[in-house]
Amino acid sequence: MENIYTLWSDENRQYHSPTQFLPLVPLTFLAIAMRCIIQTFLIKPMGIYLGIPPDQPAHSSDLLEKTSRPSKLTRFTESCIRLMWYSFIWTFGMAVLWNKPWLWDINASWTDFGNDPVSVDLWFYGSLTIVYYSSAFVGQLFLDVRRKDFWIMFIHHITVVAMVAIIWIFKLHRIGSLAPLMHDVNDIIMELSKCLNYLKCPKCPEILFGLFAISWVITRLIILPFWYIRACLEDSRGVLSQASVYYVWNGLFLILMFLHCLWTVMIFKVIRMTIQKGSTVDIRSASESCSEEELKKQE
């Protein structure tokens, strides 16, 4: 660990080597293993204890239906593990960035570019983010239920991993550290709403989903484009141009904005269906082959 950190903490060292990510590769697979253990031995028993029906062995005649329609317990465990992660990393990120000037003044992100060493806490925050999104990418391909927005999420994970790599290779750790805070707060509310929905808690899912929709619009459709992306596009001190990543960096964020618009359409579909049905529906939990009519029949 000391050798890993000295790569980042030495003020006279240039942080441009992709080999800095190599120590994080085994940590990615460790994170996947920990996720499987926590889901199997902690979250699933907890879900069953709280009243979610346990998974039943699939009969041969039901195999196709079982694979296309994941159980409520499976969906609960996936939402719960994401809730645990987002709650932890957002709290940790706020603790790390609270005393950083660029949290309160985004223009401070460009100050002393290239000469500001990465602090220990910021290094851990960035490393955890890389490990999570790398493991989430692998998990989506091989572990997670195939959801309605599979390809949107696939592109999202690739985009985020590319952005995080650019952040550390080109020393954009100040401006880059702000983005997860805007994203993770929405995901905490969304996953909590879904978990409570699976547990059939009265009214709580609807209230939380309403808060999620409001926070989504504020952070993803207002703050992100008009505060964050605007600052990157203006690049007032020429930092992104100096690092030769202006078009790549801003292009990745425009891809994210496009994905956010697609998700916004899905969110408003859920709002419409919630008003009609009277309870929140997890639109992401359906397989891609499910029609909207089938989705309405989900418990």
User: Number of helical segments?
Assistant: 12
Quaternary structure classification:
single chain
**Form type:** globular
Helix and strand run: HHHHHHHHHHHH
State the major sheet: none
Task: State the distance separating the first and last CA atoms.
Answer: 47 Å
Can you give the helix content as a percent range? over 70%
Which whole number gives the mean pLDDT?
81
Class by SSE composition: mainly alpha
Radius of gyration using CA atoms only: 21 Å
In terms of per-residue confidence, which ranges show pLDDT below 50 for 5 or more consecutive residues? 1-15, 60-67, 286-299
Main location: membrane
Keywords: Membrane, Transmembrane, Transmembrane helix
Subcellular location: Membrane
Domain TLC: 74-276
Task: Produce the secondary structure layout.
Blueprint: H1 2-9, H2 24-49, H3 63-68, H4 72-97, H5 101-104, H6 120-142, H7 150-169, H8 173-198, H9 204-234, H10 239-242, H11 246-277, H12 292-296
Task: Describe, in plain words, how this protein is organized in 3D.
Mean pLDDT is 81; it is low at 1-15, 60-67 and 286-299. The chain is mostly helical and 299 residues long. It is globular. It has one domain. It has helices at residues 2-9, 24-49, 63-68, 72-97, 101-104, 120-142, 150-169, 173-198, 204-234, 239-242, 246-277, 292-296. The chain contains 12 helices and no strands. The protein is 71% helix and 0% strand.
Question: What can be said about this structure in brief?
Answer:
It contains twelve helices and no strands.
